Amino acid sequence: MFPVLLTLGPLEVSTYGVVVAAGWLAGVKWLVSRRSSFGMSEDAIWTLVYWAFGGAFAGGKLMYFLVTPGSFALSLAALRYGFVFYGGLLGGLAAGAWHGYRTRLAFYKVADYCLTALALGHGIGRFGCLAAGCCYGRHTDLPWGISLAGDPSRHPTQVYEALLNLALFGALVRFVLPRVEAGRWPRGSAVAAYIFGYAALRFAVEFLRGDDRGAFTFGLSPSQWVALVAAVVTAAVLAARRRAK
After folding, report:
1. Is there a contact between 154 and 148 (Cβ–Cβ < 8 Å)?
2. Radius of gyration from C-alpha coordinates of the chain
3. What's this model's pTM, rounded to 2 decimal places?
4. pLDDT at 2 over 80
């Protein structure tokens, strides 16, 4: 596809890195624009973002090493490529929750907006996967198939997931957050909607993927199993909260 955006002597600037950074900045900018809704200064938001980003980086890389045998390496190249989104999500949530505990932030109140911003950033960032030629799909005879990894027509699964993430962002902004802000739905509703919504879209898109995603169990990839667990746990938490009312 278009893996290198710019070459400056011996330095190559990857398109993937630039697009992912653009997605990250777009998500943070949106989050900052909504800071009055959860009562944080811009400096405090950036501090939270740095914590979450560090946790996401560590979690995404660690899960990649776990699901990809033989991939562990201590090198710059190993740090630049190879991440598992769900590992990053868990790591980011854990780091953000720890920072929130230390600073006495209301976790759900802030997390509703953080995960909405994540949907925006992730949607943009997936176009970086298309440029890098990773996360590609299986063969297809559909007219919008793209040439990747030696196959002249593969599902553009990167585009599918990008558009679905952006649609999820729109749904959270348009339907979920207004109801949370009006007090009609409890804090944490956007968190639950994001986790459940992303689990559904990721589970579906995985069936069309054609790249190596670790060992399959009962025909499902590791990410599909994580998606199933995430959906079930989210449904259980929501049911418990409803019974507690």
Report:
1. yes
2. 19
3. 0.90
4. no
